[in-house]
Amino acid sequence: MLTINRSGLDTMGWNETDAIGKLFSRAWKEDSRAAVDEAMEKALQGKQTGFEGIANRADGHGVVWNVVLNPIVEPDGTIRRFVGIGMDVTEGKQTEATLHDIGAEYGAIIESFDGLIYICSQDHEIEYMNRRYMEHIGVNAIGRKCFQALHGLDGICPWCVSHRVFQGETVRWEALSPSDQRWYYAVNSPIRRTDGSLSEMAMVLDITERKLAEVALRQSEEEYRVLVDNLPAVVFKGYADWSVDFYNDKIEELTGYPKKEFDSRRLTGLDLILEEDVEKRKAGVSRAVHGSGQCEMEYRIRHKDGRIIWIYARDKIILDAAGKIDHIRSVLFDITARKNLEDQLLQSQKMEVVGQLAGGVAHDFNNLLTAIMGYCDLLRKRVGDNQVLLNDLDQVYRAGERAASLTRQLLAFSRKQVMQPKVLDLNLVIVDMEKMLRRLIGEDIDLVTVLDPALGRVLADPGQIEQVIMNLAVNGRDAMPKGGRLTIGTANVDLDSAAIQTYLDLKAGPYVMLAVSDNGSGMDAETASRIFEPFFTTKGEGRGTGLGLSTTYGIVRQSGGHIRVRSEPGSGATFEVYLPRISGGIESATTIKGAKHVLEEGTETVLLVDDEEMIRKLTAEVLRGCGYTVMVAGHGEEAIRMCSDCDHPVDLLITDLVMPGMNGLELAERLNLLIPSLKVLYMSGYATRSIDQGKILKVGRNFLQKPFSPAVLAQTVRRILDEPRAL
Do the bridges between strand 562-567 and strand 49-56 make them parallel or antiparallel, or are there none, so unpaired? Predict the structure, then answer.
């Protein structure tokens, strides 16, 4: 080497003394020297030539040179020297090697890709196709048109996106192939070659299974959605901040709020819970977080319209890795109707207990009052014209009548009256009472009747129904001390299974409704819950016994009906009575009339049976005083023995309905087998559930309600004995 420029020295890490005079061929790596020697030989022969080789740097590293040798012709025409022009291409070669390695790697990736890949030109000719695609179509289609080879079409595919790809766009799309009826997902991308031309590369995945799974998933989701939406409950997913999502449509029905309120998280589950139940709800979830992860509880929410809704909640708490609440899966049931029924049941049980007590007291009082009032009547005959004693006896008798009225109310409440039902038209009952009701409520209250002209019939005791109407009218009057309007209405109603869910012991079917409304002061919920309790009253001291509405309650319930009140403070009150609707003609009620103290006489034989001694003594004394032969027994078995041993026929059996052991109905049936012509008069102070109510209805007019007077006893006995025996 005769000379070398500064760039060459710097690249090789030499100085001039290192290079000048050194053999050119010795500057190269061993495996490059053959190419160097060959190039020098050609240059010295006068040829321009080139080579590529790796030279030895001073530090031992190799430098790749691309060298061109040009011969120098001397003046004498000989060639003894040449000029070498070299370019350091070390980095380029490294890049080329890297690209080669990368290309090999990408080629391996493409070939191992579990999809279909092909490259085609702008005229739709396939330039490359991976092995998987060849296996898929069963042929090497390189060089063929893609629409022919891949889809069996004669022209460009209707879904072709090549025009967009060659404008530089990467297109992702799905299509159902007409050739094999399978779904494919494709990504078509432009690729630029080294010469600047564009090709299209398509990567295609068979997504048929995924599509089928999506369809199955959509069907499953739809089935799940239908199932969830038809559940009688709210299903939702909640979070630690009490916000909710993923809920069914029932949430609107339960809360009254549109779903968008929950979507925006403006409204949370905690916002709906009654303030007094918030801590209980939080505590239930907290226990579940630190316990089993499950929570069941009842609490109350406030509906958008202000109603209180009882909720039964079942929660599943899902925790994250840190033990914090990730989310809560909840199902909420509206149990308001059940809670109302539970309240009604508790109230009914309370009323039943009080009723049993009241009925027992009334029964004992009726027996006592029968004796008191009966002996008052008998004493009247014995005192003659002693006006002072007669006046005293009148006071005792009137006190007895007032006490008897009180016991009747107690029996009505306890549902232990002996009812004498008739087929009634409530409209006629109301019309007959209208004049009396107007006098009862006063001139400052306007009485309005709204009666259904097509009203059905009911089976009820006429006197008891009149008592119900009068009690409700009086209650309405007392709620309007400054005057107002009292409305009495009737209507036919049909209650289905949904409508009776809020009523205890009420069956679905046709009913006649009697409604009595006032526009008075109304009442709060607590007062309304106790309104039918005996002796409960909101009136001042001395202004009522507190038995009017409890009596009404008992009569309605004993008649197979139901009564409820709807009221709010300041909005008046409406009492609704529901009685079973029946078909049949109207029956007229019959009453016993007669002189108060005149005793009708007879000579027939009477068998008297009662478990109360004072009743036996009084009744026997009255009947013997009227000329009858009286046989007395304290219970049914004794009465049967007396009849069996009697040597003359018994004309009339007078028996208490309710007795220990054999009741009056059973006794009458037994004695009628012995004496077919025997007539029967039943008496009682109350009815009991141990006696078949259907049989009691057949007693009809042959019944005396305790307490009774001697005159009424004598008159009833005479009437029954004089009537022909029914066949």
Answer: unpaired
The 10s digit of each residue's pLDDT in 580-609 is: 998 766 655 444 444 445 578 889 999 999
- How far is the C-alpha of 175 from the C-alpha of 235, rounded, in Å? 37
Please identify which residue in the block is written with the tokens 């309304």: 528
Q: What is the DSSP letter of 680?
A: E
Computed from CA positions of residues 608, 609, 615, 616, in that sequence, does the dihedral angle turn out positive or negative?
positive
404-454 pLDDT, tens per residue?
Answer: 766 665 555 444 455 567 889 999 999 988 888 888 888 889 999 999 999
| N-terminal to C-terminal alpha carbon distance within the chain | 158
d(CA 307, CA 565): 17
What tokens does 649 get? 């026929």
- Region 332-358: mean pLDDT is 72
Whole-model pTM: value is: 0.42
CA distance 506 to 573: 22
Q: Mutual orientation of helices 664-674 and 636-645 as an angle, nearest 10°?
A: 20
CB 54 within 8 A of CB 62: yes
Those residues with Cβ within 8 angstroms of residue 509's Cβ, 6 or more apart along the chain or in another chain? 494, 495, 580, 581
Place of tokens 């190419």: 35
Report DSSP letters for 415-446, one per residue. T-S----EEE-HHHHHHHHHHHHHHHH-TTEE
Give the closest residue to 176 by CA, choosing from 141, 197, 206. Answer: 206
Order across the sheet with 445-450: list the strands. Answer: 445-450, 484-495, 509-518, 573-580, 562-567
Q: Which residues contact 316 (CB under 8 A, 6 or more apart)?
A: 293, 294, 328, 329, 330
CB 22 within 8 Å of CB 1: yes
Q: What is the 3-state secondary structure (H, E, C) of 115-161?
A: CEEEEECCCCEEEEECHHHHHHHCCCCCCCEHHHHHHCCCCCCCCCC
pLDDT in tens, 574-583: 999 999 998 7
Instruction: Report the length, in residues, of the chain.
Output: 727
Q: What is the DSSP string of 7-34?
A: HHHHHHT--HHHHTTS-GGGGB-GGGHH
Query: How many whole angstroms separate alpha carbon 724 and alpha carbon 712?
Result: 20
Domains and CATH numbers, the chain: 6-94 (3.30.450.20), 113-210 (3.30.450.20), 231-334 (3.30.450.20), 422-580 (3.30.565.10), 605-722 (3.40.50.2300)
Query: Any residues with CB less than 8 A from the CB of 258 and at least 6 apart, and which?
Result: 252
Helix residue ranges per DSSP H, 176-267: 208-229, 250-255, 259-263
